[in-house]
Design a protein that fits this description.
The chain is mostly helical. The protein has one domain. 62% of the residues lie in helices and 4% in strands. It has 7 helices and 2 strands; from the N terminus they run H-H-H-E-E-H-H-H-H. A two-stranded antiparallel sheet has the order 1-2. Helix 2 (11-23) runs antiparallel to helix 3 and helix 3 runs antiparallel to helix 4. The chain is flat and about 70 Å long. It starts with a helix and ends in a 20-residue tail after the last helix.
Amino acid sequence: MSDWQRHLVVLPIVLPLAVGALMLLFDERRVLLKAAISVAATIALLAAAIALLVRADTPVTQVYRLGDWPAPFGIVLVADRLSALMVLLASVIGLAALIFGRYTPVGAFGAALLFGAVQSMQLAVRISPPAGDLGQLVGTLPPQWFGMAPYIFTIIVLAGVVGRTIVPAADGIPYDKESRA
């Protein structure tokens, strides 16, 4: 195992934190730069999640001890197949929120709130189904259907939005300092 592969477990935590701190250094007038950084970071997170899933597809569970402290005293991150798959799903949802939010921080925040609201609704319905005939109908459905609801909703929303989303104007154009006004 190479040295960088050991750190794949902590990368989905450190990468968004570092990119968020980096984006605080730029003022609000640099919207295209911030959009490019957020797209690049989201794609890098997706690639890291795929690499983590491939790495976790072994019989040995990946363990990362922060600070090299033992379990009762330190923080221990564990990556098995399920947790790596959940990280991959979260990064796909993050990329979907970025596309749905039209590559702006406010739009991506709104899309993430929409996904969170649907996820909260599915938890509420699963924990306490509504009264009456609807509650009896909901009670007969398998619980996995409620777990799929936020992801299916995201796919439906993306199917209607992706074709109409415009990529930032500076995408693919090299930066030329002389052309700035």
